[in-house]
Amino acid sequence: MKRNMSALTTALLISSSSLIVLGQEKTLNRSQLPPAVEKTVQTQSQGATIKRFITERENGKTVYEAEMIVKGHTKDIQIAKDGTLNEIEEEVSMDSLPLEVQTALRTKAAGAVITKVESLTRQGSVVAYEASTLKGSQRGEIQVGPTGKQLAHPE
């Protein structure tokens, strides 16, 4: 019985570590991007400094991300293998947000300091705002919808 439990434990550990490896990001050079992805990067990165490219599997599909700096703020884009722009995460100032979004983020922060706010855009529309928080040494992330309401399905 002990031997079977030991074998089961080993199998579970191997399975778990395999899942972790599958979800990992891989850094790429620009020359490794598929042509359709490169074309979208060219369009989206005009005037930007590109920090890095990564690829990963998300929901069973390979996606590519370009992390960049545009006019002093961060902008990350996620692109499907066929060149479709899936998502844009772009740093925004808290002051630029609608008052109801600012209020909702501060309420959800529950006393934590908001260190960065990003808009999440899909198919040309802002679908959420995400804020990075810091309370003591504890980092966190909160999210609200584009009108400040709680999201039905947090991203």
UniProtKB/TrEMBL annotation:
Residues 1-23 form the signal peptide. Keywords: Signal. The keyword Signal applies. The keyword Signal applies. This is PepSY domain-containing protein. It comes from Tunturiibacter gelidiferens.
